[in-house]
Amino acid sequence: MFRAEPSRWLWEVEPGPPSVPRWAENGVIKLIFSALRGAIASWCVMIDGTVRRVHRKAAGARKDRGPQAIGRSRRGLTTKTVALVDVLGQLIDFIPLPGQARELKKVEALIEGVRIEAFIADKAYDADWLVDKLLELNPGRKVVVPSKSNRKTSSDHDDEMYELRRRVEKFFGKVKEKRGIASRCDKTDSSCEALWHLAGTLEILNLVSTGPGYPPRFGRKS
């Protein structure tokens, strides 16, 4: 970005503060989010994905930037974001995918290194390897994932605890009120991810400033 003084010609400009795309590529926005995120501990996490339309101007990124998380499905050009959210409805981490990709494709990268007491997800994440991986990373912890209808042997899950999964839906509804997240208008994944990190940072700051208190572990709705 550049700024020009009224008394100077337009071509006599001075370099201004770094632009948001530059901060996105350098990882500055992600660093700010990670620093704030580390101050909030989570005992329970939930995961889900959301699909967004891609603006026609967002297609056509330079080939030297590599493939972008933009795919083609029945709805046209779409992108998918799989997010890991804590029990307070705060973003922990996320990963962008093309719109037609399965949500289980890169979930392992999200749960790697996450230490939790409980993991909640819907039927889309009913996979033996995922449950085994979670129990390997967090021995003795609780995995609440309903079984798919085509499973030969279904497993029981905690219905009361499963109700907490609505908070990841509330998170998506809240951040998608922002125009830049409701639909993708960025050509590169780095700029797109920066918006999600920025939205997550704002939600954490709102939580810290309002101080609503920690919700109970089970049962009560909020």
Characteristics:
disordered C terminus; six-stranded mixed β-sheet; 32% helix; globular; Nucleotidyltransferase, domain 5; 222 residues
Set out the fold topology.
Layout: E1 2-3, E2 14-15, H1 20-26, H2 28-37, E3 44-53, E4 71-73, E5 76-86, E6 91-98, H3 107-111, E7 118-120, H4 128-137, E8 142-144, H5 159-162, H6 166-175, H7 179-182, H8 189-210
Parallel strand pairs: 3-7, 7-8
Antiparallel strand pairs: 1-2, 3-5, 4-5, 5-6
Helix pairs in contact: 1-8, 2-8
Structural features, described:
The protein has 8 helices and 8 strands. With 222 residues, the protein is an alpha/beta fold. It has a single domain, classed as 2-Layer Sandwich (Nucleotidyltransferase, domain 5). The strands form 2 sheets. Strands 3, 4, 5, 6, 7 and 8 form a 6-stranded mixed beta sheet that branches. A two-stranded antiparallel ribbon has the order 1-2. Helix 2 packs parallel to helix 8.
Q: How many strands? A: 8
Tally of individual domains = 1
Rg, alpha carbons: 20 Å
Gross geometry:
globular
Biggest sheet layout: 6 strands, mixed
Quick structural overview:
The protein is α/β, with parallel strands linked by helices and 222 residues long.
